[in-house]
Amino acid sequence: MSQANAHSHDHGHHDQESLKQFGFWLFMITDVILFATLFATFVVLRGNTASGPIGAELIEMNGIIVSTFILLTSSFTSGLALLSMNKGDKKGLILWLAVSALLGLSFIYLEVNEFIHLVHEGANIGTSAYWSAFFTLVGTHGLHVSIGIVWMTAIIFQIARRGITPVTKRKVNIISLYWHFLDAVWIFVFSIVYLMEVM
Amino acid sequence: MASQNHSHEETGHTHGSLKSYIIGFVLSIVLTIIPLVAVMNDMFNKSTTIVIILVTAVLQFLVQLLFFMHIREEDKPRYNSISLIFAILLLLTIVIGSIWIMTYNQVAV
After folding, report:
1. Is B68 an 8 Å CB contact of chain A?
2. Would you say residue A34 has pLDDT above 90?
3. Contact A67, A110 (CB under 8 A)
4. In the predicted model, what is the mean pLDDT of residues A147-166?
5. How many domains, chain A?
6. Which of A62, A103, A135, B91 could tie A36 with a disulfide, CB 3.0–4.6 Å?
């Protein structure tokens, strides 16, 4: 009897953890809608440069290529964090999460540098419809990555203090989903905003 | 031990293996380099290049879903996958709908 109770309690707990993960998928739907509107806006307005500078003149692909590979690697290392966690390896988990967060940080550093460069060249968010759409789309993605870095850092501290528990496990699962999701969004930013602009 | 394994799988958390992560990583690097080389060297005409960029982007998105997010390994009922399909439907409606309307928008011209 007591065993049956313990089991049902256990089951309820697991149900709640996977329900929370489903809740995160619902959040990602809303985020997909946000990025869909920003992409649609960018694609529709990409020709409207108000006789100002166009992307192809100012975008420096070298930095963009480097940051693309940084984010790709970061997505991979957050997967390695998940593997360490499933093995019960707390040190490995913290290490790979820290590597992912640092790669994310260098991505943001490159992006901020790129924005500063663009503004110096005379393309700010008010220059034309093209640049408004550009900065809003790329900046929103950058903001997501920045929030992800803060979030990941907080989870690293929590794991260091509490170890690998069902709750911290769920949190790592969700942050790594979020991280893969941001990488997927970047693939389309890279393709549609950058590659199609300079081709 | 056996029951622990059982309850472990009930969480719906999927694991993947090192192998699947490495395959996914290599594939996504290759799928990034293909359009990059095509664009930087001006290898094809404009419409072919656009097709290459879009196809490799979509393939890479699938790589993320299958090898990193483990969408295939979800237990039934597949609520997460269904919400993903719903999100893609909304995405395509918003993006393609906007392009469609604005392409034939005579007022703005």
Report:
1. yes
2. yes
3. yes
4. 96
5. 1
6. B91
Can you give the pLDDT at residue B77?
Answer: 81
Structure tokens at A85: 């966690």
Residue A158: which of A93, A67, A83 has the closest Cα? A93
Q: Region of B17 please: left (phi>0), alpha (psi -120 to 50) or beta.
A: beta
* Cβ atoms of residues B23 and B67 within 8 Å: yes
- Cα–Cα distance, B57 to B49 (Å, whole number): 12
Contact list in A for residue B90 (CB cut-off 8 A) is 29, 32-33, 36
Residues of A in Cβ contact (< 8 Å) with B64? 75, 180, 183-184, 187
* Token output for A19: 């329900």
SS (H, E, C) A32-47: HHHHHHHHHHHHHHCC
pLDDT band, residue A90 (cuts 50/70/90)? very high
Cα–Cα distance measured from residue B95 to residue A4, given in angstroms and rounded to the nearest whole number: 51
Which residues of chain A neighbour B56 with C-beta distances below 8 Å?
191
d(CA B108, CA B22): 49
- Does residue A11 sit within a domain? no
Phi-psi region of B105 (alpha: psi -120 to 50; beta: other; left: phi over 0): beta
Are the CB atoms for A136 and A41 separated by under 8 Å?
yes
Nearest Cα neighbor of A129 from B12, B40, B102 is B102
User: What is the H or E stretch that residue A173 is in?
Assistant: helix A166-188
**Length of chain A as a residue count:** 199
A35 is in which domain, residue-wise? 18-198
This model of the complex carries an ipTM of 0.84
Residue A10 belongs to some domain of the structure = no
